[in-house]
Write a structure and sequence with these properties.
The chain has 190 residues and is of the alpha+beta class. The chain contains three helices and twelve strands. The longest helix is centred in the middle third of the chain and has 16 residues, at 88-103. The radius of gyration is 18 Å and the shape is elongated.
């Protein structure tokens, strides 16, 4: 799990916005090179799990959903915020929950942890934990989408199709791009 490096100290914090999904703070932070501090606006979010679902045939599942902030429909790997206390178990549970809710599928193979990345460290502390789910098959359990989501479609794609979609700018979601890169770097794409 992500940890703060030495030499960083919070000197002052003021809440600017507070909602169930996002908190924004004006902070004064001492850094290793600026011990007197620097003022920064920071958006704090619950951390997330992102899962690359791979079918027994070697295809990957993406969901196409509406994203209000960018006013577009995007193809993405399933992802969602961790609810409650964060632990290795809750990160895994979140990945499996989102897989079911967003695709109607379940993992009958392994759920392989692939580390984490910072989604946009210039303004938020959100950390996304990456997973590969193998042997993903249709679930007999009926899953309901989160009330704030608009999942339009679930698609199955070969690695070649994903590469073409990334090259053509059809996949624009940072979680999906980061997870694809991690899978490629670890030679896990099949």
């Amino acid at each position: 799990m992500s940890q703060v490096e030495e030499g960083w100290r919070l000197l002052h914090s003021e809440t600017v916005c507070d909602s169930p999904y996002l908190r924004v703070y004006r902070e004064q932070v001492a850094t290793p090179t600026r011990p007197g501090g620097v003022e920064w606006m920071v958006a704090r979010r619950r951390n997330a799990s992102v899962v690359a679902p791979r079918t027994p045939e070697g295809k990957y599942l993406l969901v196409r959903q509406e994203r209000v902030a960018v006013r577009r429909e995007l193809w993405e790997f399933p992802a969602g915020q961790v609810e409650g206390e964060e632990s290795e178990a809750s990160l895994r549970e979140t990945a499996l929950r989102e897989l079911g809710e967003e695709t109607g599928r379940e993992c009958q193979g392994e759920l392989v942890p692939l580390g984490f990345f910072f989604s946009s460290p210039g303004f938020t502390d959100e950390t996304a934990y990456l997973f590969l789910a193998t042997n993903v098959v249709p679930s007999e359990v009926v899953h309901v989408h989160d009330e704030h989501e608009a999942i339009l479609e679930v698609g199955e794609f070969t690695v070649g199709q994903l590469i073409e979609m990334i090259a053509a700018g059809e996949i624009l979601d940072a979680n999906t791009l980061a997870l694809f890169a991690r899978l490629q770097a670890r030679h896990l794409l099949k």
